[in-house]
Structure formats: structure tokens, C-alpha cells
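Run LacI family transcriptional regulator through structure prediction, thanks.
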Amino acid sequence: MKRPTLEAVAARAGVSRATVSRVVNGQPTVAPGIREVVMRAVEELGYVPNAAARTLVNQRTDSVALVVSESPTRVFSDDPMFSTVIRSASAELEAADKQVVLMLAGSARSHARVERYIAGGHVDGVMLFSMHGADPLPAAIARMRVPVVSYGRPAVPVDLPYVDNDNVGGAELAVRHLIDSGRRRIATIAGPQDMIGGQDRLTGYRNVMRGSDRRSIIAVGDFTRESGAVAMRQLLEDDPQLDAVFVANDLMAVGALQALRQAGRRVPDDVAVMGFDDIEAARYTEPPLTTVRQPIVEQAAAMVRLLLGLFSGGSKDPVILPTELVVRESV
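Sure, done. The structure for LacI family transcriptional regulator is below.
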């Protein structure tokens, strides 16, 4: 069966080919009555607009790239942050009748591939996620003059609109809660220092510790469960008397809880543990994890809305979402 053509729709509706083209491309210059007749003919014939031709007419692809600067192993790991952001951004784009194109950029070769794809005009805009400090992509994409937003404040000096949560304030909230609970030797397992989340949460920890009579005790992880366990063992070796730890994400906190259990330390009796993120697993650790909730779903949705706004000349102002303390049983 031959695919229905624009000309066939025009003949069925009794209008010109140009009128049909304006209707199927969503142009507002067609009278409602004529639009209804054309759409009825489209449905009767089963006409499907040619996507490539439509792109040439509208200069739009209705596709948005979500660029994640991580390897497939990291993105498809047990870290729920990635799946939550991807799922939430996809749902928000689908509601706007847009398609998400997931692109992983964890290597120099993949960086070049992503740059070629975006420069080729295959997407209308770009969302950047999990950027690292030395990542060349933000600056490279910004030079292409394609609308682009970042999930999280860029770690490099580049002028990009972004959506973030109050990482510094959330970390300060967490450490103050540990102090208020009577803890004296409060350590932190910081996140990677080439990522803005890792930097800001360490800043929040240091801000509060400087204002108290306690010294900072710091180990650094990479936001994975394994690195949390390694860092916790290091902290126990460096300071066996520590009685609390603020961990820069919940997944590392899960690893820290495991290391404490293996070392015979009771939580929270011997060592209080505070996380950051409020992933679903935080409710099911032993004991349930006290943490700081960052609104991951809302932040991903806000990122999409910021980008869609740029398509129509909207605001480039950053969006900062609040964090909140979630008290459970580990403190």
C-alpha cells in the first residue's frame, strides 16, 4: 500500500497543498474550519508527516539531547540518580511532545561524537548532566549557539543557564543537626572535587565546622557505594574516636554503614551517619538513614522547563531549589 501524500490529503480536503502543509506543521494562519477539514482528511487517509521534510520547513527536530558525561558502566550502575534524572526529564519532554536523545560522553572519543551530532543540527537543544571540572563539552556546546542548560551549576567558567539545589545550605543543615545531637568528632566523606555537588557539600561542612570548636576530618569518595566503604575505613583508622560522619551522598552512606558494621561500630550509638539525596534505599538501610533530601525529580523537570523556555526567548536566570532534612534513625 502506497503511503498517503500531501497531495492526496489536499485532494480529499478540497484545499491547496500549501494549506495542508501549514496545518500539519502547526502554523496558526489557517482558519479553524479549514483546519478541521484538513485534519479529518489526514485521519481518514492515515497520513503521517515526513519528519525530515518537516524539519526543513520548521527548522525544528522536536528532539532534545540529554548529555551525560559518564561511562555506560557508571550510568547503568546501582546509582539511582541517573535513572531518576533520565526518567523525569523524559516524562517532562514527552508532555511537551518532544523526544529525548540520551548521549553518553565519558571519553574523549564520545565527546567528539556528541559535538558532531549537536553541530549537525539533529537536536533543538541540549541538557548537560553529571559534568566534571575538566569537561570540555559545556564550553564547546555553548559556542554552537544551540539552547543549552545544565543540571547543576557548571564547574567550569562558562555562561550557561542551570538548575541546581542548595548543596551548601543542605550540607550546613546536616552538620548542624549532628552538632545539635551532641556529636563531637564529626567527619565527612566528601564527593569528587571535580564536580560542583562534591565541592559545595564540602564547603557546607567546612562552614559549620569552622563556626564550632570541632576540627574537620575529611575523606573523599566518588559518589559510589564502594568508595563510601573505603573512605569510612580510612576515617576509622585516622580517628578511631570519631562519633559522626556526614556523607555527601546516600549511596556512599550505604557503603559507610557496611564498613561501620564490619568494624563492630553501632549506628547511631557509636557513630551517627548522615547522608545526602534521600534516595529510596535510604528508607531501607539498617538503621534507616537520616539524610538531606534534594528534589531530584523536580530539578530534572525544572531543567526541561528552563530549556523549553529558551526556545521562545525565555529567562536564562538560574533556578535553585531548596533542600530539607529527613530525620530517620541513623543519627
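The longest strand covers residues 63-68.
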